[in-house]
Amino acid sequence: MSRHKIVAISSSISESSKTAKFLNHVAGHFDPRRFDMTVVNLRDIPPESYFRYPVDNPELIGIFDEVEQADGVVFATPIYKASFSGLLKSFLDLLPQFAFAGKVILPLATGGSLAHVLALDYSLRPVVQSMGARHVVQSYFLPEKELLVDGGHVKLAAEAERGIAEAIHHFKTSISVSTNDRLLGHPRPERAAAIAS
């Protein structure tokens, strides 16, 4: 059985981030026998690294390499001012234009109110779609009150656990759909090399 490579990226700026805890909880749903999971916290990268181009921070370059090799990417962001975090935007701005070609994306968010439930579809989805994603799975928004932390252990409210399990199922299924075409989603692929291989 082949293993699929997943990169899960948290983009909260908070040291005690509920978003990061949620992402770690989600990462635990992936069987290591089938999925090679890398979890990244963007806040661990020195802030000034996001404002240099060309990028010269080895950790950030390493994350770019992980994304390039991934079959799927999970983004987890808090919702600030009705949109995804500025830290995530800075990260996305540094990636190549079609960094997500051939990849499946699962957008996740946390926030204080259900008023923000469509924020991912209105703000993040168009960005990752423009970057060539093969498929963007239906996003999942987690109200903070449904994330319970007890002694370092994370537990979701029952309804939220069912919802995120369904989102993860769609993500896994989409990744598992067989394709040898790593350029799917790229609007201007160099097909000659791809067809010859």
Detailed description of the structure:
The structure is a single chain. The protein is of the alpha/beta class and 197 residues long. The protein has one domain: 3-Layer(aba) Sandwich (Rossmann fold). Helices cover 35% and strands 22% of the residues. It contains six helices and eight strands. Strands 1, 2, 3, 4, 5 and 6 form a six-stranded parallel sheet that branches. β1, α1 and β2 form a beta-alpha-beta unit. The longest helix is centred in the last third of the chain and has 19 residues. The two termini are 23 Å apart.
Structural class: alpha/beta
Gross morphology: globular
Q: Give the percentage of residues in beta strands.
A: 15-25%
**CATH C-level name:** Alpha Beta
Q: Give the name of the CATH architecture.
A: 3-Layer(aba) Sandwich
Secondary-structure element sequence?
EHEHEHEHEEEEHH
Keywords:
197 residues; alpha/beta; Rossmann fold; two-stranded antiparallel ribbon; 6 helices; 35% helix; globular
